[in-house]
Amino acid sequence: MGISPAESGSPEKEQQAAGVGILLQIMMLVLSFVLGHVLRRHKFYYLPEASASLLIGLIVGGLANISNTETSIRAWFNFHEEFFFLFLLPPIIFQSGFSLSAKPFFSNFGAIVTFAILGTFIASVVTGVLVYLGGRMYIMYGLPFVECLMFGALISATDPVTVLSIFQELGTDTNLYALVFGESVLNDAMAISLYRTMSIVRKHASSAQNFFMVIFRFLETFVGSMSAGVGVGFVSALLFKYAGLDVDNLQNLECCLFVLFPYFSYMLAEGLGLSGILSILFTAIVMKHYSYSNLSENSQQFVSDFFHLISSLAETFTFIYMGFDIAMEKHSWSHLGFIFFSILFIVVARAANVFSCAYLVNLVRPVHRQIPLKHQKALWYSGLRGAMAFALALQSVHDLPEGRGQIIFTATTAIVVLSVLLIGGSTGTMLEALHVIGDSHDGHLGESFDVNNGYVAPSFKKDGTSGNGIKMKLKEFHKRTSSFTALDRNYLTPFFTSQNEDDEEEEALLDERI
């Protein structure tokens, strides 16, 4: 959106404007990293690094707006959703999957999927319905029902980068971290799928056939993206196993190929009309588990450091980029009621998402692995909105006519700024109030895994048919998990890696390094 960098004028002027624009971006990146380091060093959690980056972008953008900076320079700071989705997002998502701690993530995978898929659907529908009812009651600007659902979908995309960084520094329960982290990654893909599906429905007449088309389209996107990601990951594992690239003079080629495979996965899914986020996430998980061990030791260290580096740069730049564009864009502030009630409805929808899904998860979990109420409150509080919601809202300006997209964009902008600055800045206080700082990192996990990393179903007393039914479900889940663990250990790992035995100590060292 906005003006393209290439405008009428001499090539020398355009090159000079490009140089000044890029110089300002680099200066803001340097300032963000230095300020973030100082804040962390002094343990000042009221202004996390992401919030500081957003503020820097807002301040510089505001100054540029006031000083009437040349249009050719300002054009370099316009937030282009294509640039975000195709260049900034892939390294962030890949690093998320690549740095996953496998045990807590997969021990909570059922809960994560419940929160990310069912929970996001609940939050989207509740938000959409409340916004629609608010419009019908004339307490806020009224939108058509499908457009309310589009707004509900885009605003349900959470971005807890700020919260997770504080979780890490203060030390919280590993399972809580895994739930917040896993939900946020899968939630983004779900929100994008819902938004695109609602956009398709809006362009066609509403009917029962369209409803089934929505379900089919979502399943097609989810299964297709996951299959594409896993397939690319397996192909990369076989290539690094049999191509003989782990010799000294071919390590550069080995690293180049490893870096290219994630982008190949992302662009393949996007080219097929699927979800690049889901695809690259599963590629990251598979490549970490299988491809990574086929690399030489030097290449392992390089790719770990490389993806961590570009992910940090992309995250920081995204918040700066977003802050600058928020200050520069035209906003529709004439509907403050829409913004105010949207914030209230989002809070209610997030509560409906977290507490209903936690209730369902706890129904089938043993007592010692249930999600405690204080963790549910932390999950509810951690649902701040960020770059994903902002990018989808910017896209809605093009998708929705008659200024309705502009109203949604303005509301989303206000929600993003308030949530990143207020929720991000008060996360440390929230963790202290809920008494989740310093929770055990291993206690729950130790009870959740046997020597084969399989889920251990607890023993139940015979206290009725309901308890026996839950016990049978847990046994079936234990059997499936153990079967997959055995399949991975006995067949997949030997086939896709150069290691013929499952060396748990070596895997632990790899997890620590990543």
From TrEMBL:
Superkingdom of source = Eukaryota
Could you tell me the Gene Ontology terms of the biological process aspect for this record? regulation of intracellular pH; sodium ion import across plasma membrane
GO MF: potassium:proton antiporter activity; sodium:proton antiporter activity
Q: How does it sit in the membrane?
A: Multi-pass membrane protein
Q: Where in the cell is it found?
A: Membrane
Q: Membrane-spanning regions, if any?
A: 20-39, 45-63, 83-102, 108-131, 138-156, 176-195, 216-243, 263-286, 306-324, 336-358, 378-395, 407-425
Q: Reaction catalysed by this chain?
A: K(+)(in) + H(+)(out) = K(+)(out) + H(+)(in); Na(+)(in) + H(+)(out) = Na(+)(out) + H(+)(in)
Q: Name one Pfam family in it.
A: Na_H_Exchanger
Matching entries from Gene3D superfamilies are given as: 6.10.140.1330
Write out the entry's keywords from A to Z.
Antiport, Ion transport, Membrane, Potassium, Potassium transport, Sodium, Sodium transport, Transmembrane, Transmembrane helix, Transport
Tell me the ranges covered by the Cation/H+ exchanger transmembrane domain, including all copies. 33-432
Q: Cellular component terms, GO, for this chain's entry?
A: endosome; plasma membrane
Classification via InterPro entries: Cation/H_exchanger_CPA1 (IPR018422), Cation/H_exchanger_TM (IPR006153), NaH_exchanger (IPR004709)
**Alphabetized PANTHER family for the sequence:** SODIUM/HYDROGEN EXCHANGER, SODIUM_HYDROGEN EXCHANGER 5-RELATED
**Family designation:** Belongs to the monovalent cation:proton antiporter 1 (CPA1) transporter (TC 2.A.36) family.
* Protein name per UniProt: Sodium/hydrogen exchanger
In which organism is this protein found?
A: Gossypium raimondii (Peruvian cotton)
Kindly list the organism's lineage: Eukaryota, Viridiplantae, Streptophyta, Embryophyta, Tracheophyta
